[in-house]
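Recall from the previous lesson that a structure prediction takes nothing but the amino acid sequence as input. Here we apply that procedure to Inorganic phosphate transporter from Fredinandcohnia quinoae. The sequence below is the only information supplied.
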Amino acid sequence: MDTFLILTILIVFFALAFDFINGFHDTANAIATSVSTRALSPRRAIILAATMNFVGAITFTGVAKTITKDIVDPFAIDNGSVVILAALISAIIWNLVTWYFGIPSSSSHALIGSIAGAAISAAGFGILNYKGFIKILEALILSPFIALAIGFLMMTLFKKLFKRTSLYKTNKGFRIFQIFTAALQSFTHGTNDAQKAMGIITMALIAGGFTTSTDIPMWVRLAAATAMGLGTSIGGWKIIKTVGGKIMKIRPVNGAAADLSSALIIFGATTIHLPVSTTHVISSAIMGVGSAQRVKGVKWGVARKIVLTWVITLPISAIMAALIYQIMNLFF
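The prediction returns the following tokens.
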């Protein structure tokens, strides 16, 4: 078999594996609040999330095109297939390590850092598309702060609207409403996160000479959506415990406010074709909601641990990908 074909098959496999892992790693964030407040049973939450992730994933392709062309030019990379494969392996390793320790780190940071690290290792810093790369970094950095602010404002609004309603009635109503917000959040997660593997596979098809277009083929969209849906069905209980309970004690009204806030941010990013970290956005929205409720009610020690992981993910994944590329380059 042709080496390019073998590498492309490997990339498709690892890209779908990345989406599968992303399913139980990141999608856990989307249903964490609804599970922790018992608005949904774990089984129903996972079925709902898997379904809505699949629907979201096949509906949009803008983020996938951004991943395909805005970090590095796939038409300009020599040995591009090896670069992409090294990036995928690095991102998967980091996702599995953070999942094992129950840390809600960013799959987006891991993947984007890995692509940049492997590409730089192959062709130097000049290979980066700095305009597109900086635009992506700005979205990744700013989105958690926006989510924190929106979460704070959303919870403040809910407090004013329902201040004369009994706590029991408020929580009962919002527990039902959380079914809708969990579905919405899972849908928006699919519109953004599943796109990243689609972009990677399309980069591989271009690098291998199998296509000359950055348009995302339908079979790629369906495969990535299915992989993420299957991953979601496995569930990510370690992440759910951290996001759903260790940041703050979540009641239905808090969960609904956090879900709505993060869904708005994620879907807004999708509409302008920018990848964001759903992990960052959801966790930050929960912190914002908690701050509006009671600043001391947020477990800032856990929050600091999460933030530290966010900060180190991109450089560590970039270094890992660079090393993996150099090792793989010896064989290909």
